[in-house]
Amino acid sequence: MSQRTYPSRPIVGVGGVIVDGDHVVLIKRKYEPLALRWSIPGGTLEVGESLETGVARELAEETGLIVRVGPVIEVFDRILHDEDGRVKYHFVLVDYLCVPVGGALQAGDDVSHAEWAHFDGLAPYELTDKANEVLRRAREMPRGW
Asked: Tens digits of per-residue pLDDT, 64-76?
């Protein structure tokens, strides 16, 4: 069993909405939670790592892109229960607006696909309601930072 499943306390996760014009990077996850689902790239924070450093590292690992980390889009929790009602996953997630500054888009080890999607064409990806909300907020944010 992973340290992420049935945790004794919430786990801090970081995500990044990588935006270039009207396009955003989406990844298809290989592993739970949300295995085989399209999502915003990101992962868990490591001990001693700042939030901004963690999101930049996770995005490089999952997408091959080097990013400039901008403002926080949203902070929220994702709590998933098993069939017996026990908390199987509990993440506190911090999603940042990011822009690519280097690298090349490619799927990392823990994702099966990584691609640029147009903001107006997200429906086929069947994202979670929360991911769609975060993407909508990201699209509306100013990018002059």
From this structure: 999 999 999 999 9
